[in-house]
Amino acid sequence: MLTRIDHVMICVPNLEQGIDAYTRIGFHIYPGGAHAGRATHNAIAFLQDDYLELLSLRDRAARATGADQADSSDARVTGTNPSSMPRRSGTRR
C-alpha cells in the first residue's frame, strides 16, 4: 500500500534555468550533483518529509547512446546526499 511519495522528479531542459524558475516561485533549491555513469545532473528542493528533484541532461551527446536512462532506484549521485541536507519546516507545497 502506498503511504506517501518520497520525491517528485521534474525534468527540465536546462538545470540552471530550472533552478532559477523554481527559486522565483518560492522553492529553496540546493545543488545536487552529477549522476555517476549517467548523463544527468540534479538539484533538490526539500519539503517536510519529501523532496522535489530537478533533473536535466548535462551531456547532450550521451543522450544518443542511452546513457541518460537512469534506473529509478539508482542512488549513485556525486555531490549532495539528500539525507544529509536540512529539511525545510513549515507548510508543504
Describe the structure.
With 93 residues, this protein is α+β, with helices and mostly antiparallel strands. The protein is built from 2 helices and 5 strands; from the N terminus they run βαβββαβ. The chain has a 5-stranded mixed sheet. Helix content is 15%, strand content 31%. It has a domain at 1-64: 2,3-Dihydroxybiphenyl 1,2-Dioxygenase, domain 1 (Roll).
Key terms:
disordered C terminus; alpha+beta; 93 residues; 2,3-Dihydroxybiphenyl 1,2-Dioxygenase, domain 1
Q: Summarize the amount of helix as a percent range.
A: 10-25%
- How many strands, what sense, and barrel or not for the largest sheet? 5 strands, mixed
Distance between the termini: 23 Å
CATH C-level class of the domain at 1-64 is Alpha Beta
CATH homologous superfamily annotation of the domain at 1-64: 2,3-Dihydroxybiphenyl 1,2-Dioxygenase, domain 1
Radius of gyration: 14 Å
* CATH fold label of the domain at 1-64: 2,3-Dihydroxybiphenyl 1,2-Dioxygenase, domain 1
Number of helical regions: 2
